[in-house]
Write a structure and sequence with these properties.
With 79 residues, this protein is mostly beta strands. The chain has strands at 10-14, 29-31, 49-53.
Length: 79
């Protein structure tokens, strides 16, 4: 499920630096359950935080793919 309250096990995505303000209840996306639709998420800044909780129930787990792109969307970035 996306954007709903997960009862057990989740992956929460933070795109706006909420962790710097200890605002972990203000996540941008929450994925859980068997109905989670594959989706693409792009951070519009230099940070993205993923918080995974396996929960208490035995399940099949999560599978995710991610990539890092540098220099494409961040102005004045030097590597």
């Amino acid at each position: 499920m996306i954007g709903s309250s997960c009862s057990d096990g989740y992956l929460k995505i933070y795109l706006k630096g909420q962790e710097t303000m200890d605002a972990y209840d203000k996540f941008d996306h929450e994925l859980c359950g068997e109905e989670a639709e594959p989706t693409s998420m792009v951070s519009d800044g230099p940070r993205l935080l993923m918080v995974f909780s396996s929960g208490e129930l035995m399940g099949r787990g999560f599978k995710a793919n991610y990539t890092f792109e540098t220099g494409k969307f961040i102005p004045n970035e030097q590597f």
